[in-house]
Amino acid sequence: MLLSLLLVFTLCLNLYGVFTVKKKQGQVLFLENATMAIMGCMGIVVFTSALLRLVHLPLTKISMFLVLLLSGCLLLFADKKLGKQDVLFRKRDLFYVLILGLGICAYAYIYFTPGLRLHFISSDAGRHFSYAYNILTEGKTDLNMYYAAMNQSLAMMIFEPFVSGWGEVKVFVLMVVFDLFLAGLLIYALIARYIQTAKDYVAGVLLCTLYVLGYPLYAVQFGFVYFEAAVLIIAFIIFVARDYLKEASIVTLVLLNIELFALMVCYTYFVPVIYVSLFIAIFFQRKKEEKSLFQIALEEIKVFLVPFCLGMYFSFANLGEISKNGNGGIRQDGGCYTDLFSNFIWLLPLAILGFYLLWKKKEALLPSFLVINVLFTVVLFFFAMKKEVSPYYYFKEYNVLWLLLFLLFFAGFVSLKKEAALVGAVILLIPVACFFEFRLEPKVNAVNERYINVSAGSFINIYCFNYNIIHESVPMSDDVMAYFEQVKTNYSDGNCFVIGNEAEAAWFEAYTGEENSMVYGDEDSLQEEISSNHYDYICVMPSDLALTCEEYLLSLGEVVYNGNAGYIIRVAK
To answer: Which of 205, 497, 228 is nearest to 336 (CA)?
Structure first.
């Protein structure tokens, strides 16, 4: 318990240090500063754990306490050296946080139940829980994309003395819900300084709500922990870069370094497009300030060299995995939400206006991010139609576009009165976009129907889709959880093999530590798997494969456990 409390102390020390250290001249909104402290602290956790991994030290409570104590002390020294940040508190910002917090708690209560039961649509959540849990139990990471896992594991380290059994799983669910809260916090922090009137505030709160209920909520419900965290990092990079470009300071430079590295070890897939976007934004901003090419080159090196080199040390294998030939890499498909672009149509008029006004002011940050990400999406679409990129990978980029278009939408909204005539002209794009979609979708559907979502046919498809999941899916039952517990308690010392549906099999492996499963296949492939590996126990859960092969499975040996969620066969020797 003492080490857990010491970890809490060092985290608070880092939070305090990032919050108070001077980042820019003048005042910073309290909410902006608090958001920077939370995200900055999470980045520090991952960066310091990377230093431990570089010298081959285990990631334990003691080692994390020591490196976080060191980073906290460095921040306190920076506070004294650089001075403290002047902060402005606004009650309306706190009111938004209360609305957001209550809304997220209500959602978690409904969707995950008061007991924080497992309720994820895909198998990804189970696998990512196992990455976090392995850090806790073994002191090492199984995957180079370990940003989310490291922060989840640190939370497990803190709560370890107070939980048991399914406790670590509940901590994992809490961290996933916390990421959804962070999504709402970050989008508001990005627009907060531009909220001046009551109209701006109401529109800002409504817009942030619509943002969270779209792609961020979808990522939570599917359990896409890694790119949920990656989009948070991208939003924070934009957040920090906005101040850095206007007034470069050592603190914002270090935060950029940390977050660019964090993206490398969170989700490598997004790295090239985000690095290029920021690189171009820095170039154009400094050209506007009449800096020489040599000065710009030096600044680009300061921003990108350390995170790129350190990140490549950890993530080079991930780049190979993404680009590998055959049916793997970005050709590999998986379950995900698919909709060509109807969700974005209502955002386009004001987003285009916002883009135009920022471009006119020669503010390069958001325009460069949008242009590069749209170009990246177009390239992906081209390869997707040639079946070189799967829908699973193609639609990941839409999560980033969702963030960028909402930010540009608000930039257009706050200038609405001044640009009324232009708004009227841009609104004409809506019927054009609708016509384009109606003409394009049948052609895309003919190539691969997975690129078109027909489950909620409307121009607010993502909201209908998320609503349907909330009302039609159910959390993991107590019977299934009891079955897992039975295996872990009484049979996991043996050599177990599980047959079940994809999501349950993933959680079975994550919770029991048994790593052998079959979800898809036929009786021949199942017989070959079992006969060649000499398993001690076959754990059978309801699935198409289990039903098809039931007679064969029961012939393998004695049923030693039979519950509502499945049965266990001891294989005859």
So the answer is: 228
- Which secondary structure element, helix H or strand E, spans residue 283, and what is its range? helix 271-288
**pLDDT tens-digit profile of 177-231?**
999 999 999 999 999 988 888 888 988 999 999 999 999 999 999 999 888 999 9
Position of tokens 């980033």? Answer: 400
Averaged pLDDT score across all residues of the chain: 87
Dihedral of CA atoms 311, 314, 318, 323 in degrees, nearest 10, equals 60
Q: Which of 229, 181, 207 is nearest to 354 (CA)?
A: 207
Q: How many C-beta neighbours within 10 Å does residue 376 have? A: 19
List beta partners, residue 561. Answer: 568
Q: How far apart, in Å, are the Cα atoms of 572 and each of 317, 531, 541, 549?
A: 41, 12, 20, 17
Task: Determine phi and psi for 165, rounding to 5 degrees.
Answer: 60, -115
pLDDT at residue number 349: 81
Strand 517-518 relative to strand 496-499: parallel, antiparallel, unpaired? parallel
> From its phi and psi, is residue 196 left (phi > 0), alpha (psi between -120 and 50) or beta?
alpha
| Contact partners, residue 110, CB within 8 Å, separation at least 6 | 470
- The H or E element spanning position 308 is helix 293-323
The answer on pLDDT for 234 being more than 90 is yes
Tell me the backbone φ, ψ of residue 407, rounded to 5 degrees: -65, -45
- In terms of Cα–Cα distance, which of 109, 347, 350, 91 is closest to 210? 347
**Rounded to whole angstroms, how far apart are CA atoms 338 and 462?**
9
Q: Mean per-residue pLDDT for 10-24?
A: 93
3-state secondary structure 205-229: HHHHHHHHCCHHHHHHHHCCHHHHH
pLDDT above 80 (res 324): no
Rounded to the nearest angstrom, the gap between the alpha carbon of residue 159 and the centroid of all alpha carbons in its chain is 22
pLDDT in tens, 409-451: 998 888 776 665 556 555 656 666 665 656 666 667 666 667 7
